[in-house]
């Protein structure tokens, strides 16, 4: 059962538009709803008087998820860190698709920039300028996309997509049809401001720290997302990687690490005061991130074959 406490959520603090929120004297704690170009941006803001802020972003919504969806509340509960949970507003458009990458919609083509402004405003209010973005799968994509605008931040991306068009065609087609009203269109026809392929975006250079977590069983994501990304930026001083095998031996391997392991990472990272490289080393991440390092790690994590 996904973490989803929308039914028990209190009445949100509502803002009539983005400017009303950005210019507000105070940023309220708790549930926030910002009307923006016809869709609500729904946020759960949990300040903790910390110099570090954790932004949690979700992936594909399962059938029993109710919006707004604030994934990550359980695994981050009690951490000494400001927490921001954001529900992807594009999913409010239709129940006919369940994944949006926080990449926007026809109504909100500027969503990535807008969320950047919203997060900056909350961070300014709390003083938690050491910002860590966390997400898995499509949430990992969003973490990689948004963290680019925070030069001292950390993106902790689990089994992420790195180019939306290289995800499963059915999911991409539903997103284009129902979020953008562009049935049968290619993603290159989206507005130029929409970052739908992060490989060229990162190839141009990045200042923040990126930590990729990849299940070594998930060959689809290794081939289509991890390898193209590391081919472009592998070996960068601020790129780190952790690969292992989690979950059942059957299926597609797109299983995240156990919550206990993720919690242990958080406990180290939220207390390292923005010294991300030291925190990641303490968590067991490796600095070797080229294609050959990925292949080596796939081999190292493979189950041993019993001697005949």
Key attributes of the depicted protein:
alpha/beta; 308 residues; 10 helices; Rossmann fold; 9-stranded mixed β-sheet; globular
Describe the protein in words.
- InterPro entries: AB_hydrolase_fold.
- This is Alpha/beta hydrolase.
- The chain is 32% helix and 18% strand.
- The chain has 308 residues and is of the alpha/beta class.
- The protein has one domain: Alpha/Beta hydrolase fold, catalytic domain (Rossmann fold), CATH 3.40.50.1820.
- Strand 2 and strand 3 (39-46) form a beta hairpin.
- It is globular.
- The model has no long low-confidence stretch (mean pLDDT 94).
Structural topology:
Blueprint: E1 13-15, H1 18-22, E2 30-36, E3 39-46, E4 52-57, H2 73-76, E5 82-87, H3 111-126, E6 130-136, H4 138-147, E7 154-158, H5 169-180, H6 198-203, E8 209-215, H7 219-233, E9 239-244, H8 259-269, H9 276-283, H10 291-301
Parallel strand pairs: 1-2, 4-5, 4-6, 6-7, 7-8, 8-9
Antiparallel strand pairs: 2-3, 3-5
Helix pairs in contact: 8-9
């Amino acid at each position: 059962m996904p973490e989803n406490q929308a039914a028990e959520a209190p009445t949100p603090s509502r803002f009539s538009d983005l400017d009303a929120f950005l210019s507000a004297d105070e940023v309220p704690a708790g549930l926030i709803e910002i009307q923006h170009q016809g869709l609500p941006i729904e946020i759960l803001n949990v300040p903790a008087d910390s110099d570090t802020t954790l932004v949690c972003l979700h992936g594909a919504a399962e059938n029993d998820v109710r919006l707004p969806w604030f994934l990550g509340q359980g695994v981050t509960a009690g951490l000494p860190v400001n927490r921001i949970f954001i529900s992807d507003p594009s999913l409010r458009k239709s129940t006919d698709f369940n994944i949006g990458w926080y990449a926007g919609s026809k109504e909100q083509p500027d969503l990535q920039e807008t969320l950047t402004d919203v997060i900056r405003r909350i961070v300014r209010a709390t003083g938690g300028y050491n910002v860590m973005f966390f997400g898995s799968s499509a949430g990992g994509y969003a973490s990689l996309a948004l963290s680019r605008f925070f030069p001292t931040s950390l993106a902790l991306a689990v089994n992420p997509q790195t180019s939306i068009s290289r995800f499963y065609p059915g999911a991409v087609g539903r997103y284009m049809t129902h979020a953008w009203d562009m049935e049968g269109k290619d993603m290159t026809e989206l507005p130029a401001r929409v970052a739908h392929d992060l490989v060229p975006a990162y190839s141009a250079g990045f200042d923040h720290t990126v930590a990729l977590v990849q299940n070594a069983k998930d060959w689809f994501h290794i081939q289509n997302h991890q390898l193209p990304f590391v081919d472009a930026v592998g070996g960068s001083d601020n790129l780190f990687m952790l690969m292992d095998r989690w979950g059942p031996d059957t299926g597609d391997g797109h299983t995240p690490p156990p919550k206990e392991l993720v919690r242990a990472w958080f406990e180290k990272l939220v207390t390292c005061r923005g010294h991300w490289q030291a925190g990641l080393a303490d968590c067991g991440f490796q600095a070797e991130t080229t294609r050959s390092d990925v292949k080596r790690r796939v081999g190292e994590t493979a189950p041993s074959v019993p001697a005949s």
